[in-house]
Amino acid sequence: MASRALTEDDIPELLLQEDHSNVKNEELRFWLKCRGDSLKGLKTKAQLVKRVEDYIKAGRDQNIVDPDPNSIYTKRKERNEASKDSNSAISGTQRQPNFPSDGWSTDLKRMPVFTRAEMNLHIAKSGKNIDSTSKSHSVPTGVRKATIFLNDEYLKDISTASFENFFYFKSHCYHSF
Protein backbone atom coordinates (compact mmCIF):
# COMPACT_ATOMS: atom_id res chain seq x y z
CA MET A 1 0.00 0.00 0.00
CA ALA A 2 1.40 3.34 -0.98
CA SER A 3 1.13 6.07 1.59
CA ARG A 4 0.95 9.21 -0.46
CA ALA A 5 -0.86 12.23 1.05
CA LEU A 6 -4.35 11.10 0.13
CA THR A 7 -7.40 12.83 1.59
CA GLU A 8 -10.97 11.67 2.13
CA ASP A 9 -11.88 13.57 -1.05
CA ASP A 10 -9.57 11.31 -3.08
CA ILE A 11 -11.49 8.16 -2.11
CA PRO A 12 -15.19 8.85 -2.74
CA GLU A 13 -16.64 6.02 -0.67
CA LEU A 14 -14.58 6.87 2.43
CA LEU A 15 -16.90 9.14 4.42
CA LEU A 16 -18.78 7.60 7.35
CA GLN A 17 -21.95 8.65 9.14
CA GLU A 18 -21.72 10.13 12.64
CA ASP A 19 -23.29 7.03 14.20
CA HIS A 20 -20.84 4.28 13.25
CA SER A 21 -23.14 1.53 14.48
CA ASN A 22 -25.48 2.22 11.53
CA VAL A 23 -22.73 1.68 8.97
CA LYS A 24 -22.31 -1.66 7.19
CA ASN A 25 -19.42 -3.91 8.19
CA GLU A 26 -17.92 -3.70 4.67
CA GLU A 27 -17.80 0.10 4.88
CA LEU A 28 -16.17 -0.01 8.32
CA ARG A 29 -13.56 -2.50 7.06
CA PHE A 30 -12.85 -0.30 4.02
CA TRP A 31 -12.52 2.79 6.25
CA LEU A 32 -10.00 0.98 8.47
CA LYS A 33 -8.12 -0.43 5.49
CA CYS A 34 -7.72 3.13 4.19
CA ARG A 35 -6.01 3.96 7.49
CA GLY A 36 -3.53 1.12 7.04
CA ASP A 37 -5.20 -1.21 9.53
CA SER A 38 -4.51 -4.92 9.08
CA LEU A 39 -8.09 -5.78 10.18
CA LYS A 40 -6.75 -8.70 12.23
CA GLY A 41 -8.95 -9.86 15.08
CA LEU A 42 -12.01 -7.91 13.90
CA LYS A 43 -14.84 -10.40 13.71
CA THR A 44 -17.87 -8.52 15.02
CA LYS A 45 -19.44 -5.21 14.21
CA ALA A 46 -18.80 -4.02 17.79
CA GLN A 47 -15.07 -4.65 17.32
CA LEU A 48 -15.08 -2.76 14.02
CA VAL A 49 -16.94 0.22 15.53
CA LYS A 50 -14.59 0.29 18.54
CA ARG A 51 -11.51 0.24 16.28
CA VAL A 52 -12.92 3.10 14.15
CA GLU A 53 -13.65 5.15 17.27
CA ASP A 54 -10.15 4.43 18.60
CA TYR A 55 -8.65 5.73 15.36
CA ILE A 56 -10.75 8.90 15.58
CA LYS A 57 -9.90 9.50 19.27
CA ALA A 58 -6.19 9.02 18.60
CA GLY A 59 -6.32 11.42 15.63
CA ARG A 60 -5.19 8.70 13.22
CA ASP A 61 -8.32 9.09 11.10
CA GLN A 62 -6.59 11.68 8.89
CA ASN A 63 -3.69 9.34 7.97
CA ILE A 64 -5.08 7.89 4.77
CA VAL A 65 -3.28 5.30 2.64
CA ASP A 66 -4.25 3.77 -0.67
CA PRO A 67 -6.18 0.57 0.12
CA ASP A 68 -5.82 -0.84 -3.37
CA PRO A 69 -2.85 -3.14 -4.10
CA ASN A 70 -2.48 -1.46 -7.51
CA SER A 71 -2.63 2.04 -5.94
CA ILE A 72 -5.51 3.17 -8.15
CA TYR A 73 -6.46 6.07 -5.88
CA THR A 74 -2.89 7.37 -5.74
CA LYS A 75 -2.52 7.06 -9.51
CA ARG A 76 -5.85 8.84 -10.03
CA LYS A 77 -4.73 11.70 -7.78
CA GLU A 78 -1.38 11.97 -9.59
CA ARG A 79 -3.14 11.94 -12.97
CA ASN A 80 -5.59 14.64 -11.84
CA GLU A 81 -2.76 16.78 -10.48
CA ALA A 82 -0.77 16.32 -13.70
CA SER A 83 -3.87 17.26 -15.67
CA LYS A 84 -4.30 20.42 -13.60
CA ASP A 85 -0.63 21.26 -14.08
CA SER A 86 -0.83 20.78 -17.84
CA ASN A 87 -4.01 22.86 -18.02
CA SER A 88 -2.38 25.67 -16.05
CA ALA A 89 0.73 25.42 -18.26
CA ILE A 90 -1.18 26.89 -21.20
CA SER A 91 0.24 30.37 -21.37
CA GLY A 92 0.43 33.23 -23.82
CA THR A 93 2.81 31.26 -26.02
CA GLN A 94 0.56 28.21 -26.12
CA ARG A 95 -3.09 28.99 -26.72
CA GLN A 96 -6.27 27.04 -27.17
CA PRO A 97 -7.25 26.52 -30.80
CA ASN A 98 -10.07 28.56 -32.33
CA PHE A 99 -12.58 26.34 -34.06
CA PRO A 100 -13.11 27.46 -37.64
CA SER A 101 -16.53 28.71 -38.62
CA ASP A 102 -16.03 28.04 -42.33
CA GLY A 103 -13.75 26.08 -44.62
CA TRP A 104 -15.19 22.67 -43.74
CA SER A 105 -14.94 19.94 -46.37
CA THR A 106 -15.93 16.28 -46.72
CA ASP A 107 -12.56 15.45 -48.31
CA LEU A 108 -10.65 13.19 -45.91
CA LYS A 109 -7.56 13.24 -48.14
CA ARG A 110 -6.59 16.60 -46.64
CA MET A 111 -6.10 14.91 -43.28
CA PRO A 112 -2.49 15.08 -42.11
CA VAL A 113 -0.59 11.86 -41.54
CA PHE A 114 0.09 11.11 -37.88
CA THR A 115 2.99 8.94 -36.90
CA ARG A 116 2.56 6.34 -34.17
CA ALA A 117 5.11 8.25 -32.05
CA GLU A 118 3.03 11.43 -32.31
CA MET A 119 -0.12 9.57 -31.30
CA ASN A 120 1.65 7.89 -28.37
CA LEU A 121 2.97 11.26 -27.20
CA HIS A 122 -0.52 12.76 -27.38
CA ILE A 123 -2.00 9.82 -25.45
CA ALA A 124 0.78 10.04 -22.85
CA LYS A 125 0.08 13.76 -22.36
CA SER A 126 -3.62 13.01 -21.93
CA GLY A 127 -2.77 10.69 -19.00
CA LYS A 128 -4.41 7.61 -20.46
CA ASN A 129 -2.63 4.33 -19.86
CA ILE A 130 -5.07 1.45 -19.96
CA ASP A 131 -2.68 -1.41 -19.21
CA SER A 132 -0.63 -0.63 -16.10
CA THR A 133 1.73 -3.56 -16.77
CA SER A 134 2.65 -2.21 -20.18
CA LYS A 135 5.20 0.55 -20.59
CA SER A 136 3.43 1.86 -23.66
CA HIS A 137 0.39 4.09 -23.66
CA SER A 138 -2.67 2.90 -25.47
CA VAL A 139 -6.38 3.41 -25.74
CA PRO A 140 -7.52 0.22 -27.47
CA THR A 141 -11.15 0.70 -26.55
CA GLY A 142 -11.26 4.11 -28.22
CA VAL A 143 -9.57 2.86 -31.37
CA ARG A 144 -11.86 -0.16 -31.49
CA LYS A 145 -14.95 2.02 -31.04
CA ALA A 146 -13.81 4.46 -33.72
CA THR A 147 -13.23 1.59 -36.15
CA ILE A 148 -16.67 0.16 -35.40
CA PHE A 149 -18.27 3.58 -35.86
CA LEU A 150 -16.60 3.99 -39.25
CA ASN A 151 -17.18 0.42 -40.48
CA ASP A 152 -20.79 0.25 -39.33
CA GLU A 153 -21.43 3.74 -40.67
CA TYR A 154 -22.53 5.26 -37.36
CA LEU A 155 -20.68 8.44 -38.29
CA LYS A 156 -22.49 10.51 -40.89
CA ASP A 157 -21.65 13.83 -42.51
CA ILE A 158 -17.95 13.71 -41.62
CA SER A 159 -16.33 17.08 -42.21
CA THR A 160 -12.76 18.23 -41.83
CA ALA A 161 -11.04 21.58 -41.63
CA SER A 162 -7.57 22.87 -40.97
CA PHE A 163 -6.92 26.24 -39.41
CA GLU A 164 -3.84 27.74 -37.74
CA ASN A 165 -1.80 24.50 -37.70
CA PHE A 166 -4.71 22.49 -36.26
CA PHE A 167 -6.82 19.85 -37.98
CA TYR A 168 -10.46 19.33 -37.00
CA PHE A 169 -13.02 16.55 -37.47
CA LYS A 170 -16.74 16.85 -36.91
CA SER A 171 -19.57 14.47 -37.67
CA HIS A 172 -23.01 13.32 -36.62
CA CYS A 173 -22.98 10.11 -34.63
CA TYR A 174 -26.07 7.95 -35.14
CA HIS A 175 -27.16 5.26 -32.69
CA SER A 176 -27.36 1.62 -33.70
CA PHE A 177 -30.56 0.09 -34.98
TrEMBL record:
Q: Where is the composition biased (Polar residues)?
A: 85-99
Q: Where is this region: Disordered?
A: 61-106
Task: Determine the domain of life of the protein's source.
Answer: Eukaryota
Quote the protein name from its UniProt record: SAP domain-containing protein
Q: Which organism is it from?
A: Desmophyllum pertusum
Q: What is the lineage of its organism?
A: Eukaryota, Metazoa, Cnidaria, Anthozoa, Hexacorallia
